């Protein structure tokens, strides 16, 4: 057999864990290429090298040109490539993550398709955001009412803290510049947060579209998880950015967000929170299965058998099958 040219892609165990990576890199009006094991970004100011294996998510904005070799490296590194619009406020496409197991995806699907379990996860999400409230008996309608009141109070508190005037959330998807400065900052901060959370959701093998509170959109679960951190990260970051009085508020907000994501160890927290929500405390500590290259065959009920085995012949000992795929 002819040898396949090129370097062998690394296995997940050879890469930097998703929770230990740099959060995100936003690129616009530049050329993204590859030099050895680094991504290069070239624009009018010169060229920089970025270690792709340490990057969780790269956001490609308008004016970007990406080479085939760059995408090969990003794919091999498990770096989520996301194509976004001007100022990062539109999402167009994303890529494959690190996980090789469907353990979390199956747990997510099982929970979201059972009304009682789905409500339990929604309550758990609210408790993570507002731990001082007892929501164990609240309906979804009551949860939405509580959330709306708490978020409005957070906006007012941030306005008083920073001295930035606040009227209401006014995001216009078709006219970004029509909003006031604080609303533009909030949109920029949230778009960066969505990119980071999306990369973590994909990295652990979950479906971005199977949401518990949000539903119907292809990033419903991304919005669910991102909402866990807005009160702590994006809302304060947006008000702080506007309070600085800079000329380019969206760009400065993204830089503030990058620092806050690092300081708050958001990547690590995000993966931990997703696993706790979907697996519960009983299975929370066992993380190895998500990163193993294992392909099994369903055997009915909750049973599985090894793949890569011919089960049609009499030579197969069905009572002593291997636990894992031998190939």
Gross morphology is: flat
Per CATH, the superfamily of the largest domain is: CRISPR-associated endonuclease Cas1, C-terminal domain
CATH architecture name of the largest domain: Up-down Bundle
Instruction: State the end-to-end distance.
Output: 18 Å
User: Mean of residue pLDDT?
Assistant: 81
Task: State the share of residues found in helices, binned by percent.
Answer: 40-55%
The low-confidence parts are none
Number of helices: 9
CATH topology of the largest domain: Four Helix Bundle (Hemerythrin (Met), subunit A)
Number of strands: 10
User: Over the alpha carbons, how many angstroms does the gyration radius reach?
Assistant: 22 Å
Structural class: alpha/beta
Q: Proportion of β residues?
A: 5-15%
Largest sheet: 4 strands, mixed
Provide the succession of SSEs: EEEEEEHEEHHHHHHHHEE
What does this structure look like?
With 327 residues, the chain is α/β, with parallel strands linked by helices. It contains 9 helices and 10 strands. The chain has helices at 68-77, 103-112, 115-129, 140-162, 181-203, 220-226, 230-243, 249-263, 266-283; strands at 22-27, 31-35, 38-43, 46-51, 55-60, 65-66, 80-84, 91-93, 296-298, 304-306. The strands form 3 sheets. A 4-stranded mixed sheet has the order 1-5-7-8, sandwiched between helices. Helix 5 (181-203) crosses helix 9. It is flat and about 70 Å long. The two termini are 18 Å apart.
Layout of secondary structure:
Blueprint: E1 22-27, E2 31-35, E3 38-43, E4 46-51, E5 55-60, E6 65-66, H1 68-77, E7 80-84, E8 91-93, H2 103-112, H3 115-129, H4 140-162, H5 181-203, H6 220-226, H7 230-243, H8 249-263, H9 266-283, E9 296-298, E10 304-306
Parallel strand pairs: 1-5, 2-6, 5-7
Antiparallel strand pairs: 2-3, 3-4, 7-8, 9-10
Helix pairs in contact: 4-7, 5-6, 5-7, 5-8, 5-9, 7-8
């Amino acid at each position: 057999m002819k040898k396949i040219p090129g370097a062998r892609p690394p296995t997940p165990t050879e890469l930097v864990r998703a929770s230990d990576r740099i959060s995100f890199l936003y690129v616009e009006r530049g050329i993204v290429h590859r030099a050895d094991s680094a991504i290069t970004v070239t624009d009018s100011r010169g060229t920089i090298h970025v270690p792709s294996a340490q990057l969780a998510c790269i956001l490609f904005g308008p004016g970007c040109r990406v080479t085939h070799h760059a995408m090969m490296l990003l794919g091999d590194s498990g770096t989520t490539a996301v194509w976004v619009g001007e100022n990062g406020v539109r999402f167009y496409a994303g890529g494959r993550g690190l996980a090789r197991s469907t353990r979390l995806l199956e747990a997510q699907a099982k929970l979201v398709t059972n009304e009682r379990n789905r409500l339990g996860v929604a309550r758990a999400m609210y408790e993570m955001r507002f731990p001082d409230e007892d929501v164990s008996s609240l309906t979804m309608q009551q949860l939405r009412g509580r959330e709306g009141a708490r978020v409005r109070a957070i906006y007012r508190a941030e306005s008083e803290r920073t001295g930035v005037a606040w009227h209401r959330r006014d995001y216009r998807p078709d006219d970004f510049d029509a909003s006031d400065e604080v609303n533009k900052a909030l949109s920029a901060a949230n778009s960066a947060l969505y990119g980071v959370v999306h990369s973590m959701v994909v990295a652990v093998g979950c479906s971005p579209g199977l949401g518990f509170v949000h539903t119907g959109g292809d990033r419903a679960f991304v919005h669910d998880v991102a909402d866990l951190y807005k009160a702590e990260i994006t809302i304060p970051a947006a008000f702080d950015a506007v309070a600085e009085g800079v000329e380019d508020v969206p760009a400065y907000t993204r830089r503030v967000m990058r620092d806050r994501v690092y300081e708050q160890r958001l990547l690590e927290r995000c993966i931990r929170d997703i696993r706790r929500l979907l697996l519960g405390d009983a299975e929370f500590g066992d993380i190895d299965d998500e990163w193993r290259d294992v392909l099994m065959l369903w055997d009915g009920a909750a049973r599985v058998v090894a793949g890569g085995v011919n089960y049609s012949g009499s030579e197969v000992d069905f009572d002593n099958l291997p636990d894992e795929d031998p190939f």
